[in-house]
From TrEMBL:
CDD domains: DNA_BRE_C (cd00397). It comes from the Bacteria. Residues 12-111 form the Core-binding (CB) domain. This is Integrase. It comes from Reticulibacter mediterranei. PANTHER family: INTEGRASE_RECOMBINASE PROTEIN MJ0367-RELATED, PHAGE INTEGRASE-RELATED. Pfam families: Phage_integrase.
Length: 348
C-alpha cells in the first residue's frame, strides 16, 4: 500500500475532502511519485484559496482563471533554470499543466459526489464536423512541447570528471542511469536480485516502470568494475540483499536511498560541474540520443526506453541540425544521383 506523506501536504491533510480524495488515489495503488505530484499540486491550490478567501469546493471559472494567472506570473523559488522563456516569470508549462490537471480531477470527484453541479476547469473537447475528421478545442492552458536540454560532449566530459571525485555509490548510480536510460524511481529502487551479473544486465520491475511494463537493459565493463567495488563497500552498511543503493549519512546509514536524496546528490554534482541544468532525468535523454546517433532503429530505442508510443521516443531523441542533414543526405543519396543523371545535360 502506498503511504501518503501528509507532512509534505499539510493543507491537504487539514482539508477533509482533499485528504479523502488523495487517500483514494493512494488506495488505487498509483505510483508514489504520482501521489506526491497530486499532493503538492492540491496543496498549492488550497494555499491559493486560503490567501483569497475562497472555498476550494466552490471555486468558480473566474477564480480558476485567476489561479492560472497566479501560476503564470509568480516568482519561481527554484530560480531561473525553469522560468518561462517568454516572460522570465512563472512556473514551467508542464508544471502548470500538472496543477490544472490535478484541480480538474479533484473537481471531477466533487461532481461525482454531487457536491457541485459542474467542473469549473475547462478542457478541450471533440467537435464533429469542423475540418477533416473534426477538431479539438484548446484546453485551459496551451500545451508546449519543448526539446529536452542535453549537455554538449564537452559538458558531459566535464561532469564525468567531477563524478570521479564523488561517492562510489553515486558514480555507479549515474552510470547505470545513463547506460540503462533509467528514470529516477527505476534507478533508486533497483535491488541486488534485479541484476544478472554474468551478462551485465538489470531488470526494471513492472511496479517501478512508468508504464507498468517490465524490461531488461544492460551496462558496460567500466560500470561493471565500479559496481563490483560498490557491492563490497555496501557490505559494510548492510549484509541484507534487498535494495542496492543505501544511504551513507549518519542519520539514515544503511537505509534505502530515497528519491529526494538522489536528486540532491545529482544537483550537487551538477553544481560542482557548473552545469546546473543537469538533472536526474538528463542521463536518460542523453542515452537515448546517443543510441539514435549510433543508428539504432526507432522501435529498438523505444523498447530500450520502455516507451509504448514511438512519438514519446521521438520527443526524447535530440539530434542536431547537422546530424539530421547528414542522415537526410545519406537516405536520399540515390535519388540525388538519379536527379543528376536526368538533369545533368541541361546544366552543361
Amino acid at each position: 500500500m502506498v503511504e501518503v506523506r501528509w507532512e509534505y501536504y499539510p493543507l491537504v491533510a487539514e482539508h477533509e475532502r482533499a485528504r479523502k480524495w488523495l487517500q483514494i488515489q493512494a488506495n488505487l495503488q498509483l505510483a508514489p511519485t504520482t501521489i506526491d505530484a497530486y499532493g503538492r499540486s492540491l496543496n498549492d491550490f488550497i494555499h491559493f484559496c486560503i490567501e483569497r478567501g475562497i472555498q476550494p469546493e466552490e471555486v468558480t471559472r473566474e477564480q480558476v482563471a485567476l489561479y492560472v494567472q497566479d501560476l503564470a506570473t509568480r516568482p519561481n523559488p527554484k530560480g531561473a533554470k525553469i522560468l518561462s522563456i517568454e516572460s522570465g516569470r512563472g512556473l514551467s508549462n508542464s508544471t502548470m499543466q500538472l496543477r490544472i490537471t490535478v484541480l480538474r480531477l479533484f473537481c471531477d470527484a466533487l461532481v461525482e459526489e454531487q457536491l457541485r453541479q459542474d467542473n469549473p476547469v475547462g478542457r478541450g473537447h471533440y467537435v464533429a464536423g469542423k475540418g477533416f475528421g473534426g477538431t479539438r478545442d484548446r484546453g485551459l492552458i496551451p500545451h508546449y512541447q519543448k526539446l529536452p536540454w542535453l549537455p554538449s560532449d564537452e559538458e558531459w566530459q566535464t561532469l564525468l570528471k567531477t563524478l570521479k571525485t564523488d561517492l562510489l555509490r553515486n558514480q555507479v548510480m549515474l552510470l547505470l542511469a545513463y547506460e540503462g536510460a533509467l528514470r529516477r524511481e527505476e534507478l533508486v529502487t533497483l535491488a541486488i536480485g534485479d541484476f544478472d551479473f554474468a551478462y551485465r544486465q538489470m531488470r526494471v520491475r513492472a511496479e517501478h516502470a512508468k508504464n507498468g511494463a517490465e524490461r531488461v537493459v544492460g551496462y558496460g565493463k567500466i560500470t561493471e568494475k565500479l559496481l563490483e567495488a560498490y557491492l563490497q563497500q555496501r557490505r559494510t552498511l548492510s549484509t541484507k540483499r534487498g535494495p542496492l543503493f543505501l544511504s551513507e549519512s549518519r542519520r539514515n546509514r544503511g537505509h534505502p536511498l530515497s528519491l529526494v536524496m538522489w536528486s540532491k546528490a545529482v544537483q550537487a554534482i551538477a553544481n560542482r560541474s557548473q552545469i546546473p541544468q543537469f538533472t536526474t532525468h538528463t542521463p536518460r535523454h542523453l542515452r537515448l540520443t546517443h543510441l539514435a546517433r549510433a543508428h539504432l532503429e526507432l522501435h529498438q530505442i523505444a523498447l530500450y526506453a520502455g516507451h509504448r508510443s514511438l512519438q514519446t521516443t521521438m520527443r526524447y531523441i535530440h539530434l542536431s541540425g547537422v546530424e539530421l542533414t547528414i542522415a537526410v543526405s545519406r537516405s536520399l543519396a540515390g535519388f540525388e544521383q538519379w536527379m543528376d543523371l536526368m538533369l545533368g545535360d541541361q546544366r552543361s
